[in-house]
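Input/output pair, single chain:
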Amino acid sequence: MDTFMLIGITGIGLGALYFLVASGLSLIYGLMGVLNFAHGSFLTVGAFVGLWFSTQVVHVSNTWTFIAAMIVGGLASGLFALIVERVVITRLYERHIDQALVTVGISLVVGAVLAGWFGNDLRLLPTPPWFINTVSIGSAHIPVDRFLYIAVALILLIANTALLRYSRIGLVIRAGVENRQMVAALGINVRLAFSAVFFLGGFAAGIGGVLVSAYSNGVSPLIAGTYLIYGFIVVVIGGMGSVPGSFLAAMVIGVIKQYANYYSPGLGDFVVVFLLAGVLLLRPQGLLGKVKP
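Output:
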């Protein structure tokens, strides 16, 4: 029973990391229909800026400096995402094949540049001393950092939901997705709202990059690959443009993968792909996605 609980909570923590990656994809890909394969580079930029802040700007590893590293990494990643949108993507709306090709190219260039500067070896990201602690639930000893991942994911879920449902910019974004021409005819700057979506998606990816690096015990240009794949899977299973759906899918995937790998190492990836295939066949709109008329 203790092992069952340990695997379950660590699975939820892993799902929280998947959601942190997928939330930005859900905003950019789900809402705007942009095939942004450069999202992994947003994650990597956030991770490296967080590493730079932790090692070059501050030299004390505590809770506040780690939170600051997450915020700085998120802001840098959001700014990078905004630059990509304004310089490249803004010319490619409605041109999905071109979007895929260009964003793959951006991802390859960013990865190559970072690998040339820093190499592909893991660089240790300073974390607070309490990251090595555990919390006892019954006889199960749960790593404390899993609860941090879960807490950040919940905060991001609440913030995204509130932004899209109750703020003016969220109303403009949702209206612009449905009918961009009509919103623009009302004198509303839809382009600015879409740029805000890219910034927010990049910001979430940057925070995810710092936390993924902490989970992976280091920063590397290669860390984004696996997490980006799972980010797309989460978005598809959860439902295009549904942030709550992405959260639910990420939790399910994280828990199922951990249990599957416990009973048969390496089985988790197969089970996740099987789950993706089942959702595409039985419910193509995703768990909480809406059927388009």
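The radius of gyration is 19 Å. The first strand starts at residue 134 and ends at 137.
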